[in-house]
Known about the structure:
Layout: H1 3-11, H2 15-54, E1 56-61, H3 66-82, E2 86-91, H4 94-105, E3 118-124, H5 129-142, E4 146-150, H6 151-154, H7 156-194, H8 196-204, H9 209-247, H10 252-255, H11 261-268, H12 270-292
Antiparallel strand pairs: 1-3, 1-4, 2-3
Helix pairs in contact: 2-7, 2-9, 3-5, 7-12, 9-12
Amino acid sequence: MSAATRAAQPLLDDAQGRRAMVWIMAIMIFLTTLAAALGLAMQGAGAALDRQLAARLTVQVIEGDAATRDRAVAALLPRLRAAPQVAAAVEVDRARLAQLLEPWLGEAGLDADLPMPAMIDVDLRQGDAATVAGVEALARGVAPNVRVDRHATWLAPVRAFVGLLGWTALGLVLVMASATAAVVLLAARAGLDTHRGTIDILHMLGSTDLQITRLFQRRIAHDTLTGGLIGVLSGGLVAAFLGSRLSSLESQLAGGVTLDIADWLAIVALPFVFTGLAMLAARFAVLRRLARVL
Length: 294
């Protein structure tokens, strides 16, 4: 950098404008951090849900006669547990099942004379279609009056919503990146208009458009990185707090909404990614404006 451009660096600075730029970037990257944390957590929760649901079945033994039903369950449970593709098979507690049905049937609907199916929760070693079909065939071979429900089927709407929420949040990250580029373009153009006279003098002293552009790039990169570090720190603290609250809930789905190390590394990289984006946007805006106007 020439002596003229080094001397011009303080002249091209605008303390009030730079403070505003820092806080604008801090707010934008704070919102981006929250959106990225939500998107990554939802993607992770969706993947965990896929792994859990694909390998889980519920076998219902539907039989009007209680004695026949109990004999079928007594014959079916050992066969399921002995199957190589089954990791675990546990009968659902009848009292617990009655409690779950009581809000819909009421106490009168839980009369002992009314038939109630027996339910067996089955965890598979693999969740592929061939394994599921094999377990279904085994269950029907032992007790014809059974119904096999795949958890992935009846929770498919929940899985679809989790995926949609994750992609929407990640889409907001792209929107915020576009907004950041737009803010940088406006800031660069405003800086050129504010310091137009100084830039004319620099040109007369021999400074090139590229040298002047680097001055603007350096200033915008510093402001973006400063604001980005503030934003990602505050956003990360909020995301960590919300994550700790979710993990305290006794919910299998909510417990899967977490961020792993790779997710946190991606979030920490946001200020540096946005700084690079801001430098590119500033370079484009300044060089184009200098070529057309100055």
